[in-house]
Design a protein that fits this description.
Blueprint (H helix, E strand, L loop, with lengths): L11 H15 L1 H8 L21 H19 L7 E4 L4 H11 L4 H7 L1 H12 L3 H10 L5 E7 L3 H16 L3 E11 L4 E2 L2 H4 L3 E14 L8 E6 L10 E4 L4 E7 L5 E5 L7 E3 L19 E3 L5 H4 E8 L24 E4 L11 E4 L5 H9 L30 H14 L3 E12 L8 E11 L5 H9 L2 E3 L1 H13 L4 E2 L1 E2 L9 E4 L5 E3 L3 H8 L8 H4 L4 E2 L8 E4 L3 E2 L1 H6 L1 H4 L8 H6 L3 E7 L6 H13 L4 E7 L2 E2 L16 H8 L1 H9 L9 E2 L2 H31 L10 H4 L5 H22 L6 H19 L1 H4 L5 H22 L4 H11 L24 H23 L8 E7 L3 H8 L3 H8 L1 E7 L6 E7 L1 H8 L3 H9 L3 H10 L1 E4 L2 E4 L3 E7 L10 E5 L4 E5 L4 H22 L9 E6 L5 H9 L1 H8 L3 E3 L9 E10 L2 E8 L4 E2 L1 H7 ...
Parallel strand pairs: 1-2, 6-9, 7-13, 17-26, 25-26, 27-28, 29-30, 37-38
Antiparallel strand pairs: 3-4, 3-16, 5-6, 5-15, 7-14, 8-9, 8-12, 10-11, 16-18, 19-24, 20-21, 20-23, 22-23, 29-36, 31-34, 32-33, 35-36, 37-40, 39-40, 41-44, 42-43
Helix pairs in contact: 1-29, 4-6, 5-6, 13-14, 21-22, 22-23, 23-26, 23-28, 25-26, 25-28, 25-30, 28-29, 30-31, 36-37, 36-38, 39-40
C-alpha cells in the first residue's frame, strides 16, 4: 500500500477530482452497466428537470438519493439503467423566449410566426446542459448523459400521442367548456395541482353592490358581496340558498331598503348621518356618512325589519343590471336563482354570478338556463384584458380595472360598502402573476371516474415517509378532479386530434405512421409548425371537406407523467423490457411532486394499465436557507453548491443532506458548517483509522519483515482476541443494518449508525489495540490485528460505496494493492453479505464496557482528577453475570489500562451498593390514567426494594388495577456509600443500567504510576510537535531538572517496563547520549506531579565497542578509527537492513588500505543506545 499523509494535509475535494479522472479513464460507469447487463433489471424513473435553469440544492438532494439507491441496487445484483432526462416543453421555456423577444400578447407570437417562435424555444432548451452535467458528475452521480431522453424528441412525443390515443379509445377523454385557473402572464390554463404551488397573502378589494329589484313595493335592492370587481361587468344572475331565511330591512337614517340573508345582516354597514348631514343618500360612502361594520347589539338600532322570506321565494325575481353590456340576455338573465353552494360564513348570502369567471357560477347559470353553453361570452381575452364588448374598459387588464369599476359602481349609486382584505390567493407558478378563473374550451381526462382505482393503486405502493402517502397523497387523490391536459400554447407536444369543420368527425392519432397513412404526408417532427398544416380528407367524402388539427398542445405534466413509456419509446420499441418490469421499482422527488409528477404518473398508469406506475418512492422535503427562508439568488442567502463541494468535497455534502430531516419530507435549513462537521466527525476519523493501518503495515517492511498481506477473513473469524471478535461482529451488524435499511429505503438511518461504527472503530478497536497494531505483542499477533483492521475497513468501504462513492473508492484503490484478484473499482464489487455468526453478547458487553469507562471518567472529572490518574480500585455493579464475566475476564485488561486502575471487582448484588426507588413516568402515564394518576403515582413511589426487583424480573406489575410495564415506571438506583468513607474517598456514577464505584484514595505506588503516565504523555506530544510519523524511530532521553534527582530516578526505575511498552523503546538518561547523536526536538517541563524535567528526541545513534573493534585490527588504532568513521557515516536504516540481511553480521572489505573484517552486531557495534544499555543490564 502507498503511504498516506496526515488527515490535516489530506484534501477531500482534490482526492475526489482524481477519482473522477480515474473513473473517466477506466469508463467505470459504462463498464459497470456492461458487466451487469445480464442481471435482473431494476427500473428507476428519473423525473426530468427543466434545463432552462441551473441545478440547486434541491436537485443535488434528489440526485443524491437516486444515486445512492441505484448504486446499492447495482451492488446487490441488478442491472440499473440510469438515463438523464430533460423537460423541454411548456411555460418555463416560453417564458424565457417571451422575455428575450419582448412578447406580451398571443397575437405577437402569431405575427412572428409559430415556426420562428418554436425554433427560438428549441434553441434555449439545452442552454445549461453542460453546467448540469458538470455539477451532476462532480457530486458523484452516475447517470447516462450521452443516451439521455428529451421530451421534445420525436420518439418521446410519439409515445405521448400513443398514451393519449389509448385514453381516448377507453372513453376517458372529452372536450369541455370549463372555468379553469388561468394565467394571464403565460396565457394558458393551469391544472388544479399547478394552482397549489404558489399561494400568496395579498390585499384585494371587497365591495358590496346593490341590485334594485324590479317592481318591488319598497324599492328594495339585493345586496351581493364580491372580491373580484372586474367580474361585475359580466354579471348575469344572483344566487341565493333556498334554505336560508332572507330579510328585507330599511335603514332608519337613509331610507335605503336591502335584502340579505338574515344570518349575514351583520355584514351590512351601519350608517349614522352627522347632525349636520345634508345631501345625497344615494351612496353609503359619502363624506357626510359614517360607516361601520354591523354588530349584533346595535344592528336593529340602524335597520327596521320589513319582511322575512325563504330563499326559494326569491327565485326568478328580476333585478336591474349593473351594466348594459349583456342586454341581449335580458329575457333569461338578471334574475335570482338558488343553489346550495351559497354559504353563510361570508358575504351577504347572495352571490353575484358571472358565468365565464366562476366554476359554480357557470354551472348554476347553465342549469338554470340563464344562458346556454353555445352562447356564453367570455368578456376577457387570452391576455387578461377586456374585449371590445365591454366598451368602458375595453383593452384594460382586469386587475388594473378594479378601481375604475368600483368608481363606476359608486357613480351609479350602487356601492353599498367598499374596503380591502388580506387573503391567500393563487399566483402563476411561472410568471408570478395573479391567476383568474376563466371559461375556456379544454380537453379533459376523466380522472374522477378513476378515483376508487387510484386510491386502491396507492395502497399498493411503498413510500418513505409513509405519512405522505397515507395523508397528503391519499387526500389529494380523494379530491381528484378531471384533468385539463390541453394548453393554448405553442411549444409543446401538439394534441393529436383532427376534427372536421362541422365537428362530427374526430380522429386521434396514436402514431406517426397513422398520421402519415391518413394524410399522405411524410412527418419528420411533431411540433406545431411542422404538422399544423397537415389535413386529413373526410371519410364521408370530398363534400365534407378535411379534418384539421385542434390548435392546443399538451400540458407538460402530461408529458412527464408519460415518461415511463415515452423514454423507451413504448410501445413502438422495448415492449418486452417494459412489460416485464412495470410498475417501475423506484422514483424519488420532492414533496411538491405529490401534486405534480407523482400524481400524473399514478393517473396515467391507472388509466392505461390499472396499476401504479412505481413500487417504491422516497419523498424529500425542501432545502431552505440557513435563515429559514427560501433560497434566493437575489438575497444571496445560501452558499453556492460548487463552493461547498470545493471546500469540503461532494461526499461530505451527500452525507450531510441524507443525514437530515429533509429525507423524511421535512425542511432542512442548510448550514455550510454542517457539511464541515461531517468532514470532522465522519471522514477524518475514518481516514485516520485507515492511515493507522497503512502506517503500521509499512512499518513491517521498514523493520525488515515480510510485506503485509491480509489474512483470509474466514481465518480471522477464529481470532482469540476479544476485540477482534467484537469488531468482526460489529462489522457484520453494520452490513446487516445497512442492508435492512436500504431494502426499506430508509437512507436517513444509515449515517447515524455509521457514525457510531466509525467512532467504535477508532476509539475502541484502534485505540485499545495500538500495542498489537504496532507490533509490540509479537509479529503474528500484529498481523492478525492489522488484517482484522484491513478487513473491517474494506467491508465498511464497500458498505458505504453507494453513499460516499469518492472516499470509498480512494481507500479501496490503496487497500486492493495487497489483495490479489480484486476488482478494478469498488463500484464493481458486490455489496457485502452477512457472513459468520454475529456475537450480540460481545457487542453488548463492549458497549457496556465503554459506558463503564465513561462513568468512571465522569467521576474523575467531578473530583478534578486528570483522566489518566492512577486509581486503586473499581467496582462494577450489574445483575447480568455474563456481562460481569466478560468485564472481569477478557475485557478487564482494556478497562484497567484505559482508566489506569489497579484492580477491578465485579458485583452482581445490586442492593449492596445501591438503594432502589420507583417513580412513575408521568409523561407516559398521564394521558392514559387520567384521574387515576394520583393514586397510581402514590403506590408506585411506595414500592419496596423487593417489589422493584420483582417488577424488573417480571417486566410488569399491577398497581391500583392498572397493569404497568417497564416503560411506565422509572427505577432509580442511588449510590449507598460504605460506612466511614467520604465522597472524596469513594464515589460512584450510574446510568440506570450499570453502577461504577471508584476508590479515590492515593498511595505512593499510584503516585509513581501517575508520574510515568505524565512523562509518556509529554513524549508523545513532543513527537507530534516535531512532525514525527508513528513509524519514525527515535531515541528518547530524560534529564531531571530537580536538585534532588533521586525521586525521578526512582520513578523511572519502578515504571521502566510500562514506559518502554508505551513509547516502544527504553527511556534513556541524558548522560548516556553520545556526542554524535542528532537531536530532533527537545522541551523542558516544570512542576509536573511536582517534578521538572527535559525530554530530548534524537535519531538512533550507533554505540561503538572501541576495544572490540581495535582487536579486529590487532590493536592498530588507526585502522580501528577508520572503521569507526566509516560506520558512523552510514545511513542508519540502510546499515540496519544490511545487518538484518546478514543475520547480524556484515563484511567490510572496501576501505582502502585496510584488511577485510566481519563486523558483528552487539559484539562490535550496537544500532542504538537503548540496545547497548539493555544488553548491559542483561549481563
Amino acid at each position: 500500500m502507498e503511504e498516506v499523509c496526515e488527515g490535516k494535509d489530506f484534501s477531500f475535494p482534490s482526492q475526489e477530482e482524481k477519482i473522477i479522472s480515474f473513473w473517466s479513464e477506466i469508463k467505470a460507469f459504462e463498464t459497470q452497466l456492461e458487466r451487469t447487463k445480464d442481471l435482473p433489471e431494476y427500473i428507476f424513473y428519473d423525473g426530468p428537470p427543466f434545463a432552462t435553469g441551473l441545478p440547486h440544492y434541491g436537485h443535488i438532494l434528489a440526485g443524491t438519493i437516486k444515486d445512492i439507491v441505484t448504486r446499492y441496487q447495482t451492488m446487490t445484483g441488478h442491472h440499473v439503467t440510469r438515463r438523464f432526462g430533460w423537460d423541454c416543453h411548456g411555460l418555463p421555456v416560453e417564458n424565457e423566449i417571451d422575455k428575450k423577444l419582448g412578447i406580451k400578447r398571443r397575437d405577437e407570437v402569431l405575427k412572428l410566426g409559430i415556426d420562428k417562435y418554436n425554433e427560438e424555444c428549441r434553441g434555449i432548451v439545452t442552454r445549461y446542459v453542460e453546467e448540469w452535467e458538470k455539477v451532476v458528475v462532480r457530486v458523484g452521480r452516475w447517470i447516462d448523459f450521452k443516451n439521455d431522453y428529451k421530451t421534445m424528441d420525436l420518439k418521446f412525443m410519439e409515445s405521448v400521442w400513443w398514451v393519449f390515443g389509448k385514453l381516448f379509445e377507453k372513453g376517458l377523454v372529452y372536450q369541455g367548456f370549463k372555468v379553469m385557473p388561468y394565467s394571464t402572464g403565460c396565457k394558458t390554463v393551469l391544472s388544479n395541482f399547478e394552482v397549489q404551488q404558489n399561494y400568496k397573502d395579498v390585499p384585494d378589494p371587497e365591495i358590496m353592490v346593490s341590485f334594485p329589484i324590479v317592481d318591488d313595493l319598497h324599492n328594495a335592492s339585493f345586496v351581493a358581496w364580491t372580491t373580484t370587481p372586474w367580474t361585475l361587468p359580466s354579471n348575469l344572475a344572483l344566487c341565493v340558498n333556498g334554505n336560508f331565511d332572507y330579510i328585507k330591512v330599511r335603514n332608519k337614517y337613509t331610507g335605503k331598503v336591502y335584502v340579505v340573508a338574515e344570518c349575514r345582516l351583520s355584514a351590512l354597514p351601519i350608517e349614522k348621518p352627522k347632525s349636520t348631514a345634508s345631501g345625497s343618500a344615494g351612496d353609503s360612502k359619502t363624506s357626510n356618512s359614517k360607516i361601520k361594520c354591523g354588530k349584533a347589539e346595535n344592528l336593529m338600532d340602524s335597520y327596521e325589519l320589513l319582511e322575512k322570506v325563504k330563499g326559494n321565494e326569491l327565485v326568478n325575481k328580476k333585478y336591474e343590471p349593473l351594466f348594459n353590456y349583456f342586454r341581449e340576455f335580458s329575457d333569461t338573465a338578471f334574475r335570482v336563482v338558488a343553489d346550495d353552494y351559497v354559504t353563510d360564513d361570508s358575504g351577504t348570502g347572495i352571490v353575484h354570478c358571472a358565468p365565464a369567471f366562476g366554476e359554480e357560477d357557470y354551472r348554476v347559470c347553465i342549469e338554470n338556463k340563464i344562458l346556454s353553453k353555445e352562447n356564453l361570452i367570455v368578456a376577457v381575452d387570452d391576455d387578461g384584458c377586456f374585449i371590445g364588448k365591454i366598451t368602458d374598459f375595453s383593452g384594460r387588464y382586469v386587475k388594473d380595472a378594479d378601481k375604475d369599476i368600483i368608481e363606476a359602481v359608486k357613480a351609479k349609486g350602487r356601492l353599498v360598502k367598499s374596503g380591502s382584505f388580506m387573503h391567500s390567493y393563487p399566483f402563476c407558478w411561472r410568471s408570478d402573476t395573479p391567476l383568474i378563473y376563466r371559461a375556456v374550451p379544454s380537453w379533459f381526462i376523466r380522472v374522477e371516474e378513476l378515483k376508487e382505482q387510484l386510491l386502491e393503486n396507492n395502497k399498493q405502493t411503498y413510500w418513505v415517509p409513509d405519512y405522505v402517502k397515507e395523508k397528503r397523497f391519499h387526500n389529494w387523490l380523494e379530491n381528484a378532479r378531471d384533468w385539463a391536459v390541453s394548453r393554448s400554447r405553442f411549444w409543446g407536444t401538439p394534441l393529436p386530434v383532427w376534427i372536421s369543420d362541422d365537428g362530427e368527425e374526430v380522429i386521434v392519432m396514436d402514431s406517426i405512421s397513422k398520421l402519415e397513412k391518413l394524410s399522405g404526408v411524410k412527418v419528420f417532427d411533431l411540433h406545431r409548425h411542422n404538422i399544423d398544416h397537415i389535413t386529413i380528407p373526410s371519410s364521408r367524402g370530398p363534400e365534407f371537406g378535411v379534418l384539421r388539427r385542434v390548435e392546443d398542445v399538451f400540458d407538460c405534466w402530461f408529458e412527464s407523467g408519460s415518461m415511463p413509456y415515452a423514454y423507451i419509446h413504448y410501445p413502438f420499441e422495448n415492449v418486452e423490457l417494459f412489460e416485464k418490469n412495470f410498475p417501475g421499482h423506484f422514483v424519488a422527488e420532492g414533496l411538491d411532486q405529490t401534486r405534480g409528477w407523482f400524481y400524473t404518473l399514478m393517473v396515467l398508469s391507472t388509466a392505461l394499465f390499472g396499476k401504479p406506475a412505481f413500487r417504491n418512492l422516497i419523498c424529500n422535503g425542501l432545502v431552505l436557507a440557513e435563515d429559514g427562508k427560501k433560497m434566493s439568488k437575489s438575497l444571496k442567502n445560501y452558499p453556492s453548491p460548487m463552493d461547498v463541494i470545493n471546500d469540503y468535497g461532494a461526499d461530505a455534502l451527500r452525507l450531510y443532506l441524507i443525514n437530515s430531516p429533509v429525507v423524511r419530507a421535512e425542511t432542512l435549513r442548510f448550514k455550510k458548517e454542517g457539511v464541515f462537521n461531517v468532514v470532522k466527525d465522519v471522514f477524518l476519523p475514518w481516514y485516520n483509522a485507515y492511515r493507522f493501518l497503512v502506517q503500521n503495515a509499512k512499518r513491517l517492511e521498514v523493520e525488515g519483515l515480510a510485506p503485509f498481506t491480509p489474512i483470509d477473513p474466514a481465518t480471522l473469524q477464529d481470532s482469540s482476541n476479544v476485540l477482534d471478535q467484537w469488531i468482526n461482529s460489529a462489522t457484520q451488524s453494520l452490513v446487516h443494518f445497512v442492508r435492512q435499511e436500504m431494502n426499506a429505503y430508509r437512507l436517513y438511518t444509515v449515517v447515524p449508525y455509521l457514525l457510531k461504527f466509525l467512532d467504535n472503530l477508532t476509539n475502541i478497536y484502534v485505540r485499545f489495540n495500538r500495542k498489537r497494531l504496532k507490533g509490540r505483542t509479537g509479529e503474528e499477533d500484529c498481523r492478525t490485528a492489522l488484517s482484522t483492521l484491513y478487513n473491517v475497513l474494506l467491508i465498511s468501504c464497500k458498505v458505504m460505496a453507494p453513499f460516499t462513492p469518492f472516499f470509498s473508492e480512494g481507500l479501496y484503490q490503496n487497500l486492493r494493492r495487497v489483495c490479489t484478484g480484486s476488482e478494478e473499482s469498488i463500484h464493481y464489487c458486490s455489496f457485502p453479505q452477512v457472513e459468520g455468526e454475529r456475537d450480540e453478547r460481545i457487542e453488548q458487553s463492549v458497549a457496556r464496557m465503554m459506558t463503564i469507562i465513561d462513568l468512571a471518567r465522569n467521576i474523575c472529572e467531578r473530583h478534578n482528577k486528570p483522566l489518566k490518574s492512577p486509581l486503586r480500585e473499581m467496582i462494577v455493579v450489574h445483575p447480568d453475570v455474563d456481562f460481569l464475566d466478560d468485564i472481569a475476564g477478557k475485557l478487564k485488561e482494556y478497562v484497567l489500562e484505559e482508566l489506569n486502575v489497579r484492580s477491578l471487582v465485579p458485583c452482581n448484588d445490586t442492593l449492596k451498593y445501591a438503594s432502589l426507588r420507583a417513580e412513575p413516568e408521568f409523561s407516559v402515564l398521564g394521558k392514559r390514567l387520567g384521574k387515576s394518576m394520583g393514586v397510581v403515582a402514590k403506590e408506585v413511589k411506595a414500592m419496596s426494594q423487593k417489589d422493584i426487583l420483582e417488577f424488573e424480573k417480571a417486566g410488569e406489575v399491577t398497581v391500583a388495577t392498572h397493569c404497568l410495564k417497564l416503560s411506565d415506571i422509572k427505577v432509580v438506583r442511588e449510590f449507598k456509600r460504605p460506612d466511614g468513607l467520604s465522597d472524596k474517598e469513594v464515589d460512584a456514577a450510574g446510568d440506570g443500567d450499570v453502577l461504577v464505584i471508584l476508590d479515590l484514595r492515593l498511595d505512593e505506588s499510584l503516585y509513581e504510576a501517575g508520574v510515568a503516565r505524565e512523562v509518556v504523555n509529554r513524549i508523545q506530544k513532543l513527537r507530534k510537535k516535531v512532525g514525527l510519523e508513528p513509524t519514525d524511530a527515535v531515541e528518547v532521553y530524560f534529564e531531571s531538572l530537580d536538585e534532588d534527582k533521586s525521586i525521578s530516578q526512582q520513578v523511572l526505575n519502578s515504571q521502566e517496563l510500562y514506559i518502554r511498552d508505551a513509547i516502544g523503546s527504553p527511556l534513556l538518561f541524558s548522560t548516556s547520549m553520545p556526542p554524535h547523536a542528532v537531536i530532533l526536538g527537545e522541551e523542558s517541563f516544570h512542576d509536573i506531579s511536582k517534578l521538572s524535567f527535559a525530554i530530548y528526541l534524537a535519531r538512533p545513534a550507533l554505540v561503538l565497542k572501541s576495544d572490540a573493534i581495535l582487536s579486529l585490527y590487532g590493536g592498530n588504532s588507526k585502522s580501528a578509527h577508520g572503521l569507526e568513521t566509516y560506520l558512523l557515516s552510514r545511513d542508519h536504516s540502510n546499515l540496519k537492513s544490511e545487518f538484518q540481511l546478514g543475520d547480524g553480521k556484515i563484511t567490510v572489505d572496501f576501505i582502502e588500505g585496510l584488511p577485510s573484517v566481519n563486523v558483528v552486531l552487539e559484539e562490535h557495534v550496537f544500532l542504538t543506545v537503548g540496545d547497548s544499555i539493555l544488553r548491559a543490564k542483561s549481563g
